[in-house]
């Protein structure tokens, strides 16, 4: 039996990809070599861009309910509090972005939510299955996958989401160049701790000349905390492996509180700063995503988030190719777009780590130095991409543009993240937003102004029987919408038009990819640009010329 896509690794990256493919009707399987679902909690939760993706996949409400907003930070020196700060105090939702801050949730809980949603599509993680061989014959249409138990199976595509030590990457012979900072070491784990002096409404951080301890409450638990610290060291200065007793000694040394209050420690690990990335993301029918393709400093909390965003970029492209609607060359744009993002992320996180290490040398310095507007992920775009279509009076971007642009109404060029905007449903009058229209496995074509109606009719006539393309007329507040098609929107506050550069009373067309990035911005009557772009993504089923 041949499956469409075999995903190796059932962390957030693999689960996101599996869920995106499953809802498209793709035959997908996901395997993991672990004998049981891990309860790792190293990642503290999704950033705003990942929350948008989780909303599209239908799980954001559950994620929000299971987690908590990021907490203010209380900073200590020599056992005494010296400062409090809230890096997100001034963050507020905007018309262009509903999610204004990251969200705290244990990684194992996020994985539970994703697995439950995936199970609703009839897909379950296959545990205890380790991939030990991959073979793709020249000109072949599948990959032969060998498992440790000796079984061989086939898949049209394989995606390695199997972490920094990725066996899939090693089987492909892809290099993973970079550095490991042996002197930058941290021990971490999940602990049980109950002490009246440690309120669960703060992220407590002790930074002393001889080390540090950080304790952040784990949402959904009564006494669970994320514990991070500089390690104990032996007489030669080598870091010691983390243990419960070691955590108690570190806790007492830096907090001045009795170590007996720390009653349990599990998921213990030693973290060294690794900055590495693969030199390519695809070899034939095998691709890499997440930590299998890139690892970096934890400053900014971008590891899991970059993996989730890799998966969301890749999922729709695999879906289109497997459905026969796009040439396999579409998969080349995955590396074209995401490898530069990984390179930028490595630079950003390394810079934020340096800034944080410098900040905590001074009393009151804290982990807030790791957070910048860029770590929200909302500015990441692909202006250099071959999938970035046309826009009047603009030039193609370069890879340097990757994530340097804050999300605001002026950012609507091809390749940019598509801005959100509050609207009303034209049929019911109920409040909604553009991302509600974008949600789901389809490309969206927005039409502003009466002059866009003919092109929208053409799109609907051509692709109306398929779920892959959705045409949406966006009416200005003053326009008559009494004959509006189902799914049309009213831009009653003008935010949608402003977000896409449509002037008052103006018109235009915008094609938005399934991963919420702008494909084309065109004049309202430019059927050719829209037609050509949709052909590349969805094939050419014979356009009905409704414009004439």
From TrEMBL:
Domain FAD-binding: 3-347
Annotated region (Disordered), positions in chain: 390-426
Compositional bias (Basic and acidic residues): 414-426
Family annotation (InterPro entries): FAD-bd, FAD/NAD-bd_sf, Phe_hydrox_C_dim_dom, RIFMO-like, Thioredoxin-like_sf
Cofactor: FAD
Coiled coil: none
Every Phenol hydroxylase-like C-terminal dimerisation domain range: 459-536
Annotated keywords: FAD, Flavoprotein
Family label: Belongs to the PheA/TfdB FAD monooxygenase family.
Protein name (record): FAD-dependent oxidoreductase
């Amino acid at each position: 039996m041949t499956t469409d896509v075999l995903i190796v690794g059932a962390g957030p990256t693999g689960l996101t990809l599996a869920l995106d493919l499953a809802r498209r009707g793709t035959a997908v399987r996901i395997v993991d070599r672990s004998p049981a679902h891990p309860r790792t909690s190293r990642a503290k939760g999704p950033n705003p861009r990942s929350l948008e993706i989780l909303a599209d996949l239908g799980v954001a409400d559950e994620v929000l309910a299971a987690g908590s907003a990021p907490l203010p930070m209380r900073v200590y020196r020599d056992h005494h509090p010296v400062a409090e700060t809230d890096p997100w105090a001034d963050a507020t939702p905007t018309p262009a972005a509903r999610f204004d801050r990251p969200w705290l949730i244990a990684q194992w809980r996020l994985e539970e939510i994703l697995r439950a949603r995936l199970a609703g599509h009839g897909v379950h993680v296959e545990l205890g299955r380790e991939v030990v061989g991959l073979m793709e014959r020249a000109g072949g249409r599948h990959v032969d996958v060998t498992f440790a138990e000796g079984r061989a199976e086939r898949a049209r595509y394989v995606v390695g989401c199997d972490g920094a030590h990725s066996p899939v990457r090693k089987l492909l012979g892809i290099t993973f160049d970079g550095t490991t900072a042996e002197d930058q070491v941290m021990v971490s784990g999940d602990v049980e701790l109950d002490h009246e002096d440690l309120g669960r409404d703060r992220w407590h951080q002790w930074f002393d000349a001889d080390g540090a301890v950080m304790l952040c409450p784990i949402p959904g638990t009564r006494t669970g905390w994320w514990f991070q610290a500089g390690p104990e060291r032996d007489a030669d200065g080598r870091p010691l492996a983390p243990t419960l007793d070691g955590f108690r000694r570190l806790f007492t040394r830096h907090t001045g509180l009795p170590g007996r209050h720390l009653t349990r420690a599990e998921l213990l690990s030693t973290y060294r700063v690794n900055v590495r990335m693969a030199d390519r993301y695809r070899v034939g029918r095998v691709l890499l995503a997440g930590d299998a393709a890139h690892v970096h400093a934890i400053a900014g909390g971008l590891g899991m988030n970059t993996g989730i965003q890799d998966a969301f970029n890749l999922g729709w492209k695999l879906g289109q190719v497997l459905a026969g609607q796009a040439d396999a060359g579409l998969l080349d744009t995955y590396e074209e777009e995401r490898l530069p993002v990984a390179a930028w992320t490595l630079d950003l996180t390394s810079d934020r780590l340096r800034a944080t290490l410098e900040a905590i040398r001074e009393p009151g310095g804290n982990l807030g130095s790791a957070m910048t507007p860029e770590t929200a992920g909302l500015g990441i775009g692909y202006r250099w991409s071959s999938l970035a279509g046309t826009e009047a009076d603009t030039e193609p971007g370069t890879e340097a543009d990757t994530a340097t642009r804050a999300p605001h109404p002026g950012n609507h060029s091809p390749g940019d993240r598509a801005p959100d905007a509050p609207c009303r449903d034209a049929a019911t009058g109920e409040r909604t937003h553009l991302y509600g229209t974008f949600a789901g496995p389809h490309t969206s074509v927005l039409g502003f102004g009466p002059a866009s109606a003919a092109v929208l009719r053409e799109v609907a006539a051509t692709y109306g029987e398929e779920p892959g393309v959705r045409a949406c007329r966006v009416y200005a507040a003053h326009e008559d919408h009494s004959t509006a098609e189902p799914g049309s929107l009213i831009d009653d506050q003008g935010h949608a038009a402003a977000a896409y550069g449509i002037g008052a009373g103006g018109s235009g067309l915008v094609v938005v990819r399934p991963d919420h990035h702008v494909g084309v911005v065109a004049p309202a009557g430019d059927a050719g640009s829209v037609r050509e772009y949709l052909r590349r993504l969805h094939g050419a089923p014979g356009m009905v010329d409704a414009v004439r």
